[in-house]
Design a protein that fits this description.
six-stranded mixed beta sheet, binds CU-O-CU linkage, Immunoglobulin-like, copper, globular, mainly beta, 3 domains, CuRO_3_LCC, binds copper (II) ion, Laccase, glycoprotein, signal
Length: about 550
Protein backbone atom coordinates (compact mmCIF):
# COMPACT_ATOMS: atom_id res chain seq x y z
CA UNK A 1 0.00 0.00 0.00
CA UNK A 2 1.12 3.50 -0.72
CA UNK A 3 0.78 6.85 0.99
CA UNK A 4 -0.49 9.68 -1.19
CA UNK A 5 -0.02 13.30 -0.26
CA UNK A 6 -2.22 16.23 -1.19
CA UNK A 7 -2.26 19.90 -0.29
CA UNK A 8 -5.58 21.68 0.20
CA UNK A 9 -5.33 25.43 0.23
CA UNK A 10 -8.71 26.82 1.23
CA UNK A 11 -9.14 30.19 -0.42
CA UNK A 12 -11.61 32.52 -2.07
CA UNK A 13 -11.35 32.44 -5.85
CA UNK A 14 -13.19 34.34 -8.59
CA UNK A 15 -15.56 32.53 -10.93
CA UNK A 16 -17.90 33.75 -13.66
CA UNK A 17 -21.09 31.79 -14.30
CA UNK A 18 -24.64 32.64 -15.40
CA UNK A 19 -23.34 35.97 -16.72
CA UNK A 20 -21.95 37.27 -13.44
CA UNK A 21 -18.78 37.05 -11.38
CA UNK A 22 -18.11 36.50 -7.72
CA UNK A 23 -15.67 34.88 -5.35
CA UNK A 24 -16.41 31.49 -3.90
CA UNK A 25 -14.75 29.37 -1.26
CA UNK A 26 -12.57 26.79 -3.00
CA UNK A 27 -9.88 24.23 -2.46
CA UNK A 28 -6.82 25.21 -4.54
CA UNK A 29 -8.93 27.65 -6.55
CA UNK A 30 -10.88 24.82 -8.22
CA UNK A 31 -14.63 24.24 -8.51
CA UNK A 32 -15.28 21.37 -8.14
CA UNK A 33 -12.18 20.75 -6.06
CA UNK A 34 -9.25 18.45 -6.83
CA UNK A 35 -9.79 14.72 -7.37
CA UNK A 36 -8.00 12.42 -4.95
CA UNK A 37 -6.95 9.06 -6.39
CA UNK A 38 -5.69 6.03 -4.58
CA UNK A 39 -5.81 2.26 -4.54
CA UNK A 40 -7.70 0.13 -2.08
CA UNK A 41 -5.79 -0.01 1.19
CA UNK A 42 -3.69 3.11 0.54
CA UNK A 43 -3.32 5.95 2.96
CA UNK A 44 -4.13 9.50 1.93
CA UNK A 45 -2.59 12.43 3.75
CA UNK A 46 -4.19 15.82 3.14
CA UNK A 47 -2.47 18.91 4.44
CA UNK A 48 -5.07 21.69 4.83
CA UNK A 49 -4.20 25.36 5.15
CA UNK A 50 -7.12 27.72 5.67
CA UNK A 51 -6.52 31.04 3.94
CA UNK A 52 -10.04 32.37 4.40
CA UNK A 53 -11.84 34.09 7.25
CA UNK A 54 -14.23 31.14 7.54
CA UNK A 55 -13.92 28.10 9.77
CA UNK A 56 -13.49 24.87 7.86
CA UNK A 57 -13.27 21.09 8.28
CA UNK A 58 -13.23 18.25 5.75
CA UNK A 59 -15.11 14.96 5.66
CA UNK A 60 -14.22 11.91 3.54
CA UNK A 61 -17.71 10.83 2.68
CA UNK A 62 -17.98 7.05 2.38
CA UNK A 63 -14.62 6.29 4.04
CA UNK A 64 -15.11 4.29 7.26
CA UNK A 65 -12.13 5.76 9.17
CA UNK A 66 -11.80 2.56 11.14
CA UNK A 67 -10.98 3.33 14.81
CA UNK A 68 -9.99 6.77 13.67
CA UNK A 69 -12.90 9.17 14.12
CA UNK A 70 -10.36 11.95 14.77
CA UNK A 71 -10.02 12.53 11.03
CA UNK A 72 -13.70 12.13 10.11
CA UNK A 73 -14.30 15.84 10.00
CA UNK A 74 -17.81 17.03 10.95
CA UNK A 75 -17.27 20.23 12.87
CA UNK A 76 -17.85 20.10 16.61
CA UNK A 77 -18.51 16.37 16.37
CA UNK A 78 -15.05 14.90 15.86
CA UNK A 79 -12.99 18.07 15.82
CA UNK A 80 -13.17 21.82 16.18
CA UNK A 81 -12.87 23.73 12.92
CA UNK A 82 -9.63 24.82 11.32
CA UNK A 83 -9.71 28.55 11.96
CA UNK A 84 -8.55 31.35 9.68
CA UNK A 85 -4.83 31.06 8.97
CA UNK A 86 -4.56 27.67 10.68
CA UNK A 87 -3.74 24.25 9.29
CA UNK A 88 -4.48 20.60 10.01
CA UNK A 89 -3.34 17.37 8.38
CA UNK A 90 -5.91 14.65 7.76
CA UNK A 91 -4.75 11.03 7.63
CA UNK A 92 -7.19 8.83 5.79
CA UNK A 93 -6.56 5.11 5.95
CA UNK A 94 -8.54 3.35 3.24
CA UNK A 95 -9.68 -0.13 4.17
CA UNK A 96 -12.59 -1.88 2.43
CA UNK A 97 -13.93 1.00 0.35
CA UNK A 98 -13.41 0.66 -3.41
CA UNK A 99 -14.98 2.65 -6.21
CA UNK A 100 -16.12 6.26 -6.08
CA UNK A 101 -16.51 8.19 -2.86
CA UNK A 102 -15.93 11.88 -2.27
CA UNK A 103 -14.75 14.56 0.09
CA UNK A 104 -16.46 17.77 1.16
CA UNK A 105 -16.20 20.55 3.68
CA UNK A 106 -18.27 19.74 6.76
CA UNK A 107 -18.69 23.20 8.19
CA UNK A 108 -21.70 25.39 7.53
CA UNK A 109 -22.46 25.73 3.84
CA UNK A 110 -18.84 25.46 2.73
CA UNK A 111 -19.51 22.12 1.11
CA UNK A 112 -21.61 23.82 -1.58
CA UNK A 113 -18.37 24.79 -3.31
CA UNK A 114 -15.64 22.83 -1.48
CA UNK A 115 -16.02 19.23 -2.62
CA UNK A 116 -14.42 16.72 -4.95
CA UNK A 117 -14.10 13.09 -5.96
CA UNK A 118 -12.15 10.48 -4.06
CA UNK A 119 -11.46 7.62 -6.43
CA UNK A 120 -10.41 4.29 -5.01
CA UNK A 121 -9.13 1.91 -7.65
CA UNK A 122 -8.72 -1.80 -7.02
CA UNK A 123 -5.61 -2.91 -5.19
CA UNK A 124 -2.76 -3.22 -7.76
CA UNK A 125 -2.77 -7.00 -7.39
CA UNK A 126 -6.54 -7.19 -7.89
CA UNK A 127 -9.07 -6.07 -10.52
CA UNK A 128 -12.57 -4.72 -11.03
CA UNK A 129 -15.46 -7.19 -10.77
CA UNK A 130 -16.22 -6.31 -14.42
CA UNK A 131 -14.08 -5.95 -17.56
CA UNK A 132 -11.55 -3.18 -17.15
CA UNK A 133 -12.97 0.06 -18.54
CA UNK A 134 -11.01 1.91 -21.22
CA UNK A 135 -11.10 5.17 -19.24
CA UNK A 136 -13.06 6.92 -16.53
CA UNK A 137 -15.35 9.94 -16.77
CA UNK A 138 -15.60 11.96 -13.56
CA UNK A 139 -19.02 13.54 -13.05
CA UNK A 140 -19.63 15.68 -10.03
CA UNK A 141 -23.05 17.29 -9.84
CA UNK A 142 -23.19 20.54 -7.94
CA UNK A 143 -25.09 23.80 -7.80
CA UNK A 144 -24.50 27.46 -8.46
CA UNK A 145 -25.98 30.40 -6.61
CA UNK A 146 -25.74 33.96 -7.78
CA UNK A 147 -25.61 35.03 -4.12
CA UNK A 148 -22.77 34.53 -1.69
CA UNK A 149 -23.21 30.93 -0.60
CA UNK A 150 -21.51 31.47 2.75
CA UNK A 151 -24.23 33.98 3.68
CA UNK A 152 -27.14 31.65 2.86
CA UNK A 153 -27.34 29.81 6.21
CA UNK A 154 -27.12 33.04 8.19
CA UNK A 155 -29.91 34.64 6.19
CA UNK A 156 -32.09 31.53 6.41
CA UNK A 157 -31.52 31.40 10.14
CA UNK A 158 -32.40 35.04 10.55
CA UNK A 159 -35.63 34.74 8.57
CA UNK A 160 -36.57 31.28 9.83
CA UNK A 161 -37.58 30.33 6.28
CA UNK A 162 -36.11 28.15 3.57
CA UNK A 163 -32.54 28.72 2.44
CA UNK A 164 -32.10 30.31 -0.95
CA UNK A 165 -32.50 27.92 -3.88
CA UNK A 166 -29.67 27.56 -6.32
CA UNK A 167 -29.86 29.22 -9.72
CA UNK A 168 -28.44 26.26 -11.59
CA UNK A 169 -27.29 22.69 -11.22
CA UNK A 170 -23.82 22.05 -12.53
CA UNK A 171 -21.97 19.10 -14.05
CA UNK A 172 -18.27 19.36 -13.29
CA UNK A 173 -18.80 22.99 -12.36
CA UNK A 174 -20.73 23.91 -15.54
CA UNK A 175 -24.47 24.55 -15.79
CA UNK A 176 -24.43 23.59 -19.46
CA UNK A 177 -25.80 25.00 -22.65
CA UNK A 178 -29.40 25.47 -21.47
CA UNK A 179 -28.40 28.32 -19.17
CA UNK A 180 -27.53 31.87 -20.18
CA UNK A 181 -23.83 32.61 -20.84
CA UNK A 182 -22.98 28.94 -20.25
CA UNK A 183 -22.84 27.35 -23.67
CA UNK A 184 -19.11 27.73 -24.34
CA UNK A 185 -18.14 26.21 -21.01
CA UNK A 186 -20.42 23.17 -21.17
CA UNK A 187 -18.47 20.13 -19.96
CA UNK A 188 -17.55 17.86 -22.88
CA UNK A 189 -15.97 14.46 -22.95
CA UNK A 190 -14.76 12.72 -26.09
CA UNK A 191 -15.35 8.97 -26.41
CA UNK A 192 -13.80 6.45 -28.77
CA UNK A 193 -16.37 4.40 -30.63
CA UNK A 194 -16.66 0.88 -29.23
CA UNK A 195 -14.94 1.58 -25.92
CA UNK A 196 -16.45 1.20 -22.45
CA UNK A 197 -16.12 4.00 -19.91
CA UNK A 198 -16.55 4.13 -16.17
CA UNK A 199 -18.59 7.12 -15.06
CA UNK A 200 -17.77 8.10 -11.51
CA UNK A 201 -20.77 10.13 -10.42
CA UNK A 202 -21.20 12.06 -7.19
CA UNK A 203 -24.12 14.24 -6.16
CA UNK A 204 -22.69 17.13 -4.18
CA UNK A 205 -25.91 19.14 -4.39
CA UNK A 206 -27.28 20.58 -1.18
CA UNK A 207 -31.02 20.29 -1.27
CA UNK A 208 -32.55 17.94 -3.82
CA UNK A 209 -32.55 14.40 -5.13
CA UNK A 210 -31.78 14.18 -8.85
CA UNK A 211 -32.55 12.19 -11.95
CA UNK A 212 -29.63 11.74 -14.33
CA UNK A 213 -29.48 10.16 -17.77
CA UNK A 214 -27.53 9.96 -21.02
CA UNK A 215 -29.12 10.14 -24.46
CA UNK A 216 -29.38 6.77 -26.25
CA UNK A 217 -26.81 5.07 -24.01
CA UNK A 218 -27.85 2.42 -21.54
CA UNK A 219 -26.08 2.76 -18.24
CA UNK A 220 -24.90 -0.21 -16.20
CA UNK A 221 -24.63 0.56 -12.52
CA UNK A 222 -21.79 -1.44 -10.96
CA UNK A 223 -21.23 0.33 -7.65
CA UNK A 224 -22.61 2.79 -5.17
CA UNK A 225 -21.09 4.68 -2.23
CA UNK A 226 -17.70 3.04 -2.82
CA UNK A 227 -19.09 -0.51 -2.74
CA UNK A 228 -19.56 -2.73 -5.81
CA UNK A 229 -23.10 -3.85 -6.59
CA UNK A 230 -24.87 -6.34 -8.82
CA UNK A 231 -25.08 -4.85 -12.27
CA UNK A 232 -28.22 -2.91 -13.10
CA UNK A 233 -28.99 -1.81 -16.66
CA UNK A 234 -30.97 1.39 -16.68
CA UNK A 235 -31.90 4.47 -18.73
CA UNK A 236 -31.73 6.86 -15.77
CA UNK A 237 -30.60 6.93 -12.17
CA UNK A 238 -31.99 8.66 -9.10
CA UNK A 239 -29.17 9.96 -6.95
CA UNK A 240 -29.62 11.70 -3.61
CA UNK A 241 -27.34 14.34 -2.13
CA UNK A 242 -24.34 12.48 -0.73
CA UNK A 243 -24.56 9.40 -2.90
CA UNK A 244 -21.97 8.29 -5.43
CA UNK A 245 -22.34 5.75 -8.22
CA UNK A 246 -20.06 3.82 -10.55
CA UNK A 247 -21.64 3.34 -13.95
CA UNK A 248 -20.42 1.74 -17.19
CA UNK A 249 -21.38 3.03 -20.60
CA UNK A 250 -20.26 1.77 -23.97
CA UNK A 251 -19.87 4.09 -26.95
CA UNK A 252 -21.96 1.85 -29.19
CA UNK A 253 -24.15 4.42 -30.98
CA UNK A 254 -23.64 6.15 -34.28
CA UNK A 255 -20.95 8.82 -34.01
CA UNK A 256 -22.52 12.04 -32.77
CA UNK A 257 -23.09 14.21 -29.76
CA UNK A 258 -25.08 12.92 -26.82
CA UNK A 259 -26.32 14.92 -23.87
CA UNK A 260 -25.98 13.92 -20.24
CA UNK A 261 -28.60 15.74 -18.22
CA UNK A 262 -29.67 16.05 -14.63
CA UNK A 263 -32.56 17.71 -12.90
CA UNK A 264 -34.54 17.50 -9.66
CA UNK A 265 -36.51 14.64 -8.36
CA UNK A 266 -38.54 16.62 -5.87
CA UNK A 267 -41.43 15.16 -3.96
CA UNK A 268 -41.97 17.97 -1.46
CA UNK A 269 -45.06 19.60 -2.84
CA UNK A 270 -45.36 23.23 -1.95
CA UNK A 271 -41.67 23.64 -1.23
CA UNK A 272 -39.74 25.38 -3.96
CA UNK A 273 -36.94 23.69 -5.80
CA UNK A 274 -34.51 24.47 -8.55
CA UNK A 275 -36.37 23.10 -11.59
CA UNK A 276 -33.62 23.73 -14.10
CA UNK A 277 -31.69 21.12 -16.05
CA UNK A 278 -27.90 20.89 -16.19
CA UNK A 279 -26.29 19.34 -19.23
CA UNK A 280 -22.95 18.07 -20.44
CA UNK A 281 -21.91 16.49 -23.72
CA UNK A 282 -20.47 13.16 -24.71
CA UNK A 283 -18.95 13.41 -28.14
CA UNK A 284 -17.64 10.64 -30.38
CA UNK A 285 -14.08 11.23 -31.53
CA UNK A 286 -15.04 10.43 -35.10
CA UNK A 287 -17.23 13.48 -35.65
CA UNK A 288 -15.17 15.75 -37.80
CA UNK A 289 -17.62 18.20 -39.33
CA UNK A 290 -17.21 21.77 -38.12
CA UNK A 291 -20.96 21.83 -37.45
CA UNK A 292 -21.70 18.71 -35.48
CA UNK A 293 -25.29 17.53 -35.72
CA UNK A 294 -27.82 18.60 -33.11
CA UNK A 295 -27.20 16.59 -30.00
CA UNK A 296 -29.62 13.99 -28.68
CA UNK A 297 -31.35 14.65 -25.38
CA UNK A 298 -32.01 11.93 -22.76
CA UNK A 299 -35.46 11.04 -21.44
CA UNK A 300 -35.65 11.87 -17.74
CA UNK A 301 -38.66 11.09 -15.54
CA UNK A 302 -40.80 14.09 -14.57
CA UNK A 303 -39.55 15.84 -11.43
CA UNK A 304 -42.34 14.51 -9.18
CA UNK A 305 -42.36 10.88 -10.36
CA UNK A 306 -41.74 8.98 -7.13
CA UNK A 307 -42.38 5.61 -8.83
CA UNK A 308 -39.51 6.33 -11.19
CA UNK A 309 -37.24 6.99 -8.24
CA UNK A 310 -38.24 3.85 -6.39
CA UNK A 311 -38.28 1.70 -9.56
CA UNK A 312 -34.59 2.44 -9.72
CA UNK A 313 -33.64 2.15 -6.05
CA UNK A 314 -35.55 -1.09 -5.49
CA UNK A 315 -33.23 -2.82 -7.95
CA UNK A 316 -30.10 -2.19 -5.87
CA UNK A 317 -28.47 -5.42 -4.65
CA UNK A 318 -25.21 -6.39 -3.05
CA UNK A 319 -22.73 -7.93 -5.42
CA UNK A 320 -22.44 -11.02 -3.26
CA UNK A 321 -24.63 -12.90 -0.87
CA UNK A 322 -24.10 -11.49 2.59
CA UNK A 323 -24.98 -12.59 6.08
CA UNK A 324 -27.28 -10.07 7.66
CA UNK A 325 -29.46 -12.50 9.51
CA UNK A 326 -27.35 -11.47 12.47
CA UNK A 327 -29.01 -11.73 15.84
CA UNK A 328 -30.18 -8.20 16.26
CA UNK A 329 -29.59 -7.12 19.84
CA UNK A 330 -30.32 -3.41 19.48
CA UNK A 331 -33.57 -2.38 17.85
CA UNK A 332 -34.00 1.30 17.16
CA UNK A 333 -36.86 3.19 15.60
CA UNK A 334 -36.14 6.77 14.56
CA UNK A 335 -38.66 9.22 13.13
CA UNK A 336 -37.42 11.89 10.72
CA UNK A 337 -39.56 15.01 10.93
CA UNK A 338 -39.70 18.54 9.73
CA UNK A 339 -41.11 20.69 12.55
CA UNK A 340 -41.72 24.26 13.52
CA UNK A 341 -40.42 26.23 16.45
CA UNK A 342 -41.22 29.62 17.91
CA UNK A 343 -39.19 32.58 16.80
CA UNK A 344 -36.81 33.94 19.36
CA UNK A 345 -37.01 37.28 17.63
CA UNK A 346 -40.60 38.23 18.42
CA UNK A 347 -40.65 41.72 16.98
CA UNK A 348 -41.08 40.47 13.45
CA UNK A 349 -42.77 37.28 12.26
CA UNK A 350 -40.62 34.43 11.00
CA UNK A 351 -40.66 33.44 7.35
CA UNK A 352 -41.68 29.82 8.06
CA UNK A 353 -45.30 28.61 8.01
CA UNK A 354 -47.66 30.05 10.70
CA UNK A 355 -45.15 32.82 11.44
CA UNK A 356 -42.76 30.26 12.93
CA UNK A 357 -39.34 29.03 11.94
CA UNK A 358 -38.40 25.60 10.61
CA UNK A 359 -36.85 22.94 12.75
CA UNK A 360 -36.17 19.29 12.00
CA UNK A 361 -35.67 16.34 14.29
CA UNK A 362 -34.89 12.68 14.78
CA UNK A 363 -37.18 11.10 17.39
CA UNK A 364 -38.36 14.61 18.12
CA UNK A 365 -34.91 15.78 19.16
CA UNK A 366 -33.48 18.67 17.19
CA UNK A 367 -29.72 18.33 17.38
CA UNK A 368 -27.91 21.25 18.94
CA UNK A 369 -24.35 21.51 17.70
CA UNK A 370 -22.01 22.10 20.65
CA UNK A 371 -19.20 24.65 20.64
CA UNK A 372 -16.48 22.13 21.50
CA UNK A 373 -15.81 18.76 19.91
CA UNK A 374 -17.94 15.87 21.21
CA UNK A 375 -15.19 13.37 20.52
CA UNK A 376 -12.67 15.38 22.49
CA UNK A 377 -15.13 15.90 25.33
CA UNK A 378 -15.70 12.15 25.42
CA UNK A 379 -12.02 11.26 25.16
CA UNK A 380 -10.96 13.79 27.79
CA UNK A 381 -13.98 13.07 29.99
CA UNK A 382 -15.19 16.64 29.94
CA UNK A 383 -18.72 16.77 31.32
CA UNK A 384 -21.59 18.98 30.33
CA UNK A 385 -21.05 18.87 26.55
CA UNK A 386 -23.52 16.12 25.63
CA UNK A 387 -26.00 13.76 27.23
CA UNK A 388 -26.41 10.06 26.48
CA UNK A 389 -30.20 9.99 26.52
CA UNK A 390 -30.98 9.96 22.81
CA UNK A 391 -34.31 8.08 22.70
CA UNK A 392 -34.50 4.60 21.14
CA UNK A 393 -38.04 5.30 19.99
CA UNK A 394 -40.13 8.36 19.28
CA UNK A 395 -41.71 9.88 22.40
CA UNK A 396 -45.14 8.65 21.34
CA UNK A 397 -46.66 6.45 18.69
CA UNK A 398 -48.85 8.12 16.11
CA UNK A 399 -49.85 7.66 12.50
CA UNK A 400 -46.51 9.00 11.24
CA UNK A 401 -47.55 9.41 7.65
CA UNK A 402 -51.18 10.45 8.12
CA UNK A 403 -52.82 13.55 6.73
CA UNK A 404 -53.44 16.61 8.93
CA UNK A 405 -51.44 15.37 11.88
CA UNK A 406 -52.26 17.19 15.12
CA UNK A 407 -50.39 20.44 15.60
CA UNK A 408 -49.08 19.29 18.96
CA UNK A 409 -46.64 17.09 17.06
CA UNK A 410 -45.00 20.11 15.55
CA UNK A 411 -42.71 21.26 18.39
CA UNK A 412 -39.49 19.36 19.14
CA UNK A 413 -37.10 19.22 22.03
CA UNK A 414 -33.55 20.45 21.64
CA UNK A 415 -30.36 18.88 22.84
CA UNK A 416 -26.92 17.48 22.15
CA UNK A 417 -27.92 13.90 22.76
CA UNK A 418 -25.92 10.88 21.70
CA UNK A 419 -26.94 7.24 21.58
CA UNK A 420 -24.47 4.85 23.17
CA UNK A 421 -23.89 1.53 21.40
CA UNK A 422 -21.90 -1.30 22.93
CA UNK A 423 -18.95 -2.42 20.85
CA UNK A 424 -20.02 -5.10 18.33
CA UNK A 425 -23.70 -4.75 19.02
CA UNK A 426 -25.92 -5.79 16.10
CA UNK A 427 -28.14 -2.90 15.27
CA UNK A 428 -31.37 -2.74 13.34
CA UNK A 429 -32.54 0.78 12.77
CA UNK A 430 -35.86 1.74 11.24
CA UNK A 431 -35.79 5.21 9.71
CA UNK A 432 -39.39 6.37 9.51
CA UNK A 433 -40.28 9.47 7.54
CA UNK A 434 -43.16 11.50 8.93
CA UNK A 435 -45.67 13.97 7.67
CA UNK A 436 -45.58 16.08 10.84
CA UNK A 437 -45.23 19.37 9.02
CA UNK A 438 -44.69 18.10 5.50
CA UNK A 439 -43.25 14.91 4.12
CA UNK A 440 -40.08 14.83 2.10
CA UNK A 441 -37.30 12.50 1.00
CA UNK A 442 -34.51 12.18 3.54
CA UNK A 443 -31.17 10.86 2.28
CA UNK A 444 -29.67 9.66 5.55
CA UNK A 445 -25.89 9.34 5.82
CA UNK A 446 -24.12 7.48 8.59
CA UNK A 447 -20.48 8.36 9.25
CA UNK A 448 -17.97 5.62 10.12
CA UNK A 449 -20.04 2.78 8.70
CA UNK A 450 -21.71 1.16 5.80
CA UNK A 451 -25.00 -0.60 6.45
CA UNK A 452 -27.30 -3.09 4.76
CA UNK A 453 -30.64 -1.80 3.58
CA UNK A 454 -32.75 -4.87 4.36
CA UNK A 455 -36.15 -3.35 3.65
CA UNK A 456 -38.14 -0.26 2.80
CA UNK A 457 -41.67 0.75 2.03
CA UNK A 458 -44.28 3.47 2.04
CA UNK A 459 -46.52 4.44 4.94
CA UNK A 460 -45.85 3.37 8.50
CA UNK A 461 -43.42 0.57 9.21
CA UNK A 462 -45.36 -2.50 10.29
CA UNK A 463 -43.22 -4.42 12.81
CA UNK A 464 -45.31 -7.55 12.36
CA UNK A 465 -45.35 -7.95 8.62
CA UNK A 466 -42.65 -5.83 7.05
CA UNK A 467 -39.72 -7.82 8.49
CA UNK A 468 -41.09 -10.92 6.75
CA UNK A 469 -40.25 -9.27 3.47
CA UNK A 470 -36.71 -8.24 4.37
CA UNK A 471 -33.98 -9.06 1.90
CA UNK A 472 -31.50 -10.98 4.05
CA UNK A 473 -29.71 -12.49 1.06
CA UNK A 474 -28.28 -9.66 -1.03
CA UNK A 475 -29.47 -6.34 0.45
CA UNK A 476 -27.56 -3.34 -0.90
CA UNK A 477 -24.71 -2.07 1.25
CA UNK A 478 -24.70 1.72 1.34
CA UNK A 479 -23.51 4.70 3.32
CA UNK A 480 -26.28 7.12 2.27
CA UNK A 481 -29.81 5.78 1.89
CA UNK A 482 -32.80 7.66 0.55
CA UNK A 483 -35.71 7.32 2.98
CA UNK A 484 -38.68 7.83 0.68
CA UNK A 485 -41.26 10.51 1.30
CA UNK A 486 -43.89 9.16 3.69
CA UNK A 487 -41.99 5.90 3.89
CA UNK A 488 -39.44 3.96 5.89
CA UNK A 489 -36.17 2.13 5.49
CA UNK A 490 -34.73 -0.67 7.65
CA UNK A 491 -30.95 -0.84 7.95
CA UNK A 492 -28.63 -3.19 9.79
CA UNK A 493 -25.04 -2.81 10.84
CA UNK A 494 -22.60 -4.19 13.35
CA UNK A 495 -21.24 -1.51 15.67
CA UNK A 496 -17.62 -2.55 15.25
CA UNK A 497 -16.09 0.87 14.65
CA UNK A 498 -15.63 2.71 17.94
CA UNK A 499 -15.97 6.46 17.97
CA UNK A 500 -18.42 9.34 17.77
CA UNK A 501 -20.29 9.03 14.48
CA UNK A 502 -22.68 11.54 13.09
CA UNK A 503 -25.83 10.44 11.30
CA UNK A 504 -27.83 13.06 9.46
CA UNK A 505 -30.04 13.94 6.56
CA UNK A 506 -27.83 15.04 3.64
CA UNK A 507 -30.42 17.60 2.55
CA UNK A 508 -28.66 20.65 3.86
CA UNK A 509 -31.70 22.54 5.03
CA UNK A 510 -32.92 19.57 7.06
CA UNK A 511 -29.50 19.12 8.58
CA UNK A 512 -29.26 22.81 9.42
CA UNK A 513 -32.70 22.60 11.07
CA UNK A 514 -31.52 19.78 13.35
CA UNK A 515 -32.00 16.43 11.56
CA UNK A 516 -28.80 15.00 13.02
CA UNK A 517 -27.87 12.59 15.78
CA UNK A 518 -24.68 10.97 17.00
CA UNK A 519 -23.81 7.36 17.83
CA UNK A 520 -21.18 6.90 20.49
CA UNK A 521 -19.80 3.43 19.81
CA UNK A 522 -17.83 2.25 22.81
CA UNK A 523 -14.38 0.70 22.69
CA UNK A 524 -14.09 -3.06 22.75
CA UNK A 525 -11.94 -4.82 25.35
CA UNK A 526 -8.98 -5.64 23.10
CA UNK A 527 -6.59 -2.84 22.14
CA UNK A 528 -7.33 -3.35 18.44
CA UNK A 529 -11.00 -2.64 19.18
CA UNK A 530 -10.32 0.80 20.55
CA UNK A 531 -10.10 4.33 19.24
CA UNK A 532 -6.62 5.37 18.19
CA UNK A 533 -4.83 8.22 19.93
CA UNK A 534 -5.82 11.75 18.98
CA UNK A 535 -3.55 13.61 16.57
CA UNK A 536 -1.24 16.19 18.12
CA UNK A 537 -2.33 18.97 15.81
CA UNK A 538 -6.13 18.81 16.36
CA UNK A 539 -7.50 22.31 15.85
CA UNK A 540 -8.11 24.23 19.03
CA UNK A 541 -11.69 24.81 20.16
CA UNK A 542 -10.83 28.31 21.34
CA UNK A 543 -9.68 31.45 19.61
CU1 LIG B 1 -21.43 13.95 3.29
CU2 LIG B 1 -21.92 14.30 7.23
O1 LIG B 1 -21.66 14.13 5.28
CU1 LIG C 1 -34.15 15.35 5.09
Amino acid sequence: AETRHYNFEVKLSPFTKLCSSKKILTVNGEFPGPTLEAHRGDKIVVYVINNTKYNITFHWHGVRQVRNPWYDGPEYITQCPIQAGKSFTYQIQLTTEEGTVWWHAHSGWARATAHGLLIVRPHPSSSYPFPKPYAQIPIIIGEWWKEDVMEIPKNAKKSGGEPLLSNAYTINGQPGYLYPCSKQETFEFTMEKGKTYLLRIVSAVMDEDLFFGIAKHKMTLVGKDGIYMKQIKTDYIMITPGQSMDILITANQSPGMYIMATRSYSSAFGAGFDNTTATAILKYSTITSPNPPNPFFPHLPPYDRTEAATDFTKRLRSLRTVDVSLNVDTRLFFTLSVNLMDCSNEDKPCAGPFGKRFAASINNVSFVTPSVSLLEAYHNRVGGVFTTDFPENPPRKFNYTGENLPKKLLPTSFGTKVMVLEYNSSVELILQGTNVLASDNHPVHLHGYSFYVVGWGFGNFDPKNDPKRYNLVDPPEETTVGVPKNGWVAIRFKADNPGMWLMHCHIERHQAWGMNMVFLVKDGLAPHQQILHPPHDLPSCYN
